[in-house]
Write a structure and sequence with these properties.
single chain, alpha+beta, Aminopeptidase, Alpha-Beta Plaits, six-stranded mixed sheet, binds zinc ion
């Protein structure tokens, strides 16, 4: 017998998941628990892929194009436990809220999506794929692999990132750049024998500000932002002239910006400030990268560049989604359509792969990644009840 796909069941599954910690790259236990639940709910083709994403399918009754529901398996670190009013991994439901790390970002919505799909087995006009990904909080290696693998081919994606009941249609992307200045080290007592990498720092920072000052803007997403956030100096010795300076730059980019174009803009601006560097000094701009390891053992150098995306508010999928969801406290009207302020896996699904992507979930952005993280149970119940109509409406539009 398969488990009944009720809201109460979804809430207790969400509370269970909060009790299973899992930082990016450490999602094994969460994945095992999600896989077990998908099987108990009667999803088909339940599997874990190479990088550790958990995937299942709620088979529909017809041939409408598949829609994919997606949340992520990882959470951010919980910090100091004594700073939490409710312990971060208790999964307590108190005062009308599910509390704890992941309650809203994103284990609550993950549970709601999984149960909503299960409730549509043999009912939806087409298959509903449920795919929960790894490493979203570190830039989305899981979603990138899932879509590149070709093992799923959704016609639209619905993300479970918090929207507070609105329909979210995009966000800025993020790029982390490093500007590397190379010189020749020497004793501080004889500077003429060295080339001080710090000598170019002023021009580099001015060049970064030049790019920031000329920033472009989008009517929906707002302006891009660009700011230097850190300077590393090597060697770290006060009586040695440094031969290496690395400036870190955080750049919130608009959709469509690719790595090479971003690097070229910064190189041009810095080049304009420096002119010809003095002998012994060189500089370059690169995308920062980090080594990431999945809990399944796959390792990869990942460029710290998460794409942005933006769906038109007039796109048929967006309009159908907003109409089907409505507004929580109003009898009529479409949901508010807006962007997120943070990045999601939609940068991969829509920004890179061009798959129509929207978000719908309970939860307020202001609680995400904080020690007051919580999910309003009544808001979650409302969202759970809206999900089947949302899925069916999107599939009908896709089927034409
Ligand atoms: Zn999230």
């Amino acid at each position: 017998m398969t488990r009944s796909a009720s809201f109460e069941g979804a809430l207790s599954f969400a509370a269970d998941l909060v009790r299973v910690p899992g930082l990016p790259g450490g999602e094994a236990d969460v994945a095992a628990r999600v896989k077990q639940e998908m099987e108990a709910l009667g999803l088909a083709d339940v599997r874990v892929d190479d990088v550790g994403n958990v995937i299942g399918v709620a088979r529909g009754r017809g041939e409408a194009p598949p829609v994919m529901l997606s949340s992520h398996l990882d959470v951010v670190a919980e910090g100091d436990h004594s700073e939490w009013e409710v312990p971060p991994f208790s999964g307590a439901v108190e005062g009308g809220f599910l509390h704890g790390r992941g309650a809203m970002d994103i284990k609550g919505p993950l549970a709601l999506q999984t149960y909503a799909a299960a409730a549509l087995i043999d009912e939806a006009p087409g298959d509903v794929i449920v795919a929960h990904t790894v490493l979203e909080e570190r830039g989305g290696l899981g979603m990138r692999h899932l879509l590149e693998s070709g093992t799923v081919d959704p016609a639209a994606v619905i993300l479970g990132e918090a929207t507070h009941g609105d329909i979210c249609i995009g966000h800025r992307g993020r790029a982390e750049l490093e500007i590397v200045i190379q010189g020749v080290a020497g004793h501080a007592s004889v500077p003429e024998r060295a080339s001080n990498a710090l000598d170019l720092l002023g021009d580099v920072l001015a060049g970064v500000r030049d790019v920031a000052g000329a920033r472009t803007s989008d009517p929906v997403l707002g302006p891009e932002s660009l700011v230097a956030t850190m300077v590393d100096v090597r060697p770290e010795t006060r009586n040695v002239i440094p031969d290496l300076v690395v400036v870190a730059v955080d750049w919130r980019v608009l959709p469509g910006a690719d790595g090479p174009a971003l690097l070229a803009r910064v190189r041009k601006a810095i080049g304009g400030r420096i002119g010809t560097a003095s002998t012994g000094l060189t500089w370059d701009v690169r995308l920062a990268s980090e080594r990431q390891r999945t809990y399944t053992g796959l390792e990869e150098d990942v460029a710290l560049h998460t794409p942005g995306f933006l769906m038109s508010a007039e796109h048929p999928v967006v309009r159908a989604a907003a109409r089907s969801v409505g507004r929580r406290f109003e009898a009529a009207g479409s949901a508010v359509v807006r962007p997120w302020s943070f990045a999601t896996d939609g940068g991969w699904s829509c920004g890179v792969h061009g798959i129509p992507t929207v978000g719908f979930a309970p939860g307020e952005e202001r609680f995400a990644h904080t020690n007051r993280e919580r999910l309003d149970v009544e808001e979650a119940r409302w969202a759970f009840e809206r999900y089947p109509e949302l899925i069916v409406a999107v599939q009908r539009v896709l089927a034409g």
